[in-house]
Amino acid sequence: MRKCPSVDEFRNLxxxxxxxxxxxxxxxxxxxxxxxxxxxRLACKSSExxxxxxxxxxxxxxxxxQTVSGHPHIVAFHAAYFSxxxxxxxxxxxxxxxxxxxxxxxxISFWHQVELKDVGLFAKDMCMGLRHTHDxxxxxxxxxxxxxxxxxxxxxxxxxxxxxxxxxxxLTRAGDQRxxx
Length: 181
Description:
The chain has 181 residues and is an alpha+beta fold.
């Protein structure tokens, strides 16, 4: 496996602006490229782990996210930055991806009632995203409202995008040894 950029390189390239959400051991921040003149923002999922399998698990998440990225109902992947595993501090991973400021759980909690036509559109978006992951031989094992992000596209409807492939696995077919079970 080729060497990935380090967390220190990430800090030199990107400025963290605000925390978007905290979920378990992960935080999602809005970040901007320090040299950017356009002001384009990305989301950065930062997580820390102290177990020796941390880098292996992040490598799988990274491989899966890269495999399924590029679909209109999957949050786009941009880059990954890793720190080395340290017995005391653990390891850190920063995954850069498309910025979506709201998840479906927050949307429903805020509005309390969602119109039936929107429920149908969100369900269709989710099914299309899941079909794409299955076509890529990936099983997203953590589908929940918090992992369905909403993209606000000016002049269009809200688009649902699936995120968080940390618990996902590559599917195997009988006799196929290409992917770990």
